[in-house]
Design brief:
Length: 265
């Protein structure tokens, strides 16, 4: 059942989304070749705890990390470990925070050093598709309008592939709530968007084919063909004329510009 949020609840979700945004921004300031995924995981956890919140992912369903760190052919749910980042890597960093009984959720894919032009274009298009999907998150539209627009931008206009098995979701007292928010679909289908609906919109887009598989660790999702995958996410509240984006990538992107090790795309 969909849980519609009051204005007070939306502000508590916004608070946690902005904590997540601070953690992602800190990652953007330190990410470089030679660091490990555990290094950035520890740094993000410190930011969250410094804001009197708790990592939203850590322990969730048994997940061991503060961040999902998913590089290159990993689509999502990468477990932080001893992988050493190098020039040419792309790294999706997905983060959650919880405090005062509500969650926040957001993600950004970073490009380290010399990344191939075709992968940079994948990142640009995936990021753009997120905002095109958000444009459809207004009262009176339907959930399918969001996914249809994302699919149009990524698959029909650019020939990439949308992952089908993984979708966006409601956010609130639980990290994952109804409704599911697919990144594909048909206009006019699905539930009607109403005031108080808070959802995470998160395109997961593959350079090659849409097929994926799960590693033996029970978490890590990879592209079947071994090609790159990109992932961007905002948590939003459905609005009258436009959605209210509760998370922010502004400081993330400012820190990317100031980090010589990251590509500003």
């Amino acid at each position: 059942m969909v849980q519609y949020k009051t204005e007070e609840e939306i502000e508590l979700i916004r608070k946690n989304c902005l904590i997540v945004s601070e953690a992602l921004a800190h990652v953007a300031s330190i990410l470089k070749p030679g660091l490990t995924s555990l290094d950035i995981d520890a740094a993000a956890e410190q930011v969250i705890r410094d804001h009197n919140a708790v990592p939203g992912f850590k322990g969730y369903g048994g997940f061991p990390g503060t961040l999902c760190v998913s590089y290159n052919d990993i689509v999502v749910h990468g477990i932080p470990g001893d992988y050493v980042f190098q020039s040419g890597d792309i790294v999706s960093v997905d983060c959650g925070s919880v405090s005062e009984g509500y969650y926040g959720d957001a993600a950004y894919t970073f490009a380290i050093g010399e990344v191939t032009p075709e992968v940079v274009e994948l990142l640009k298009v995936t990021r753009a598709s997120l905002y095109k999907g958000i444009e459809k998150a207004i009262i009176g539209n339907r959930i399918g309008d969001i996914g249809a627009r994302i699919q149009e931008v990524t698959e029909r206009e650019h020939g990439y592939s949308i992952v089908r098995e993984l979708v966006g979701h409601g956010v609130g007292k639980n990290l994952h709530e109804a409704p599911e928010v697919p990144n594909y679909g048909k206009r006019g289908k699905g539930i009607r968007l109403q005031k108080g609906l808070v959802i995470a919109i998160e395109p997961m887009v593959n350079l090659g084919k849409k097929d994926i598989y799960q590693d033996d660790d029970g978490w890590t999702i990879r592209t079947r063909d071994g090609l790159a995958s990109a992932h961007f996410e905002h948590t939003i509240a459905v609005g009258v004329d436009q959605a209210d984006i509760l998370s922010s990538h502004a400081k993330v992107e400012e820190n990317i510009k100031n980090n010589i090790n990251l590509l500003d795309f």
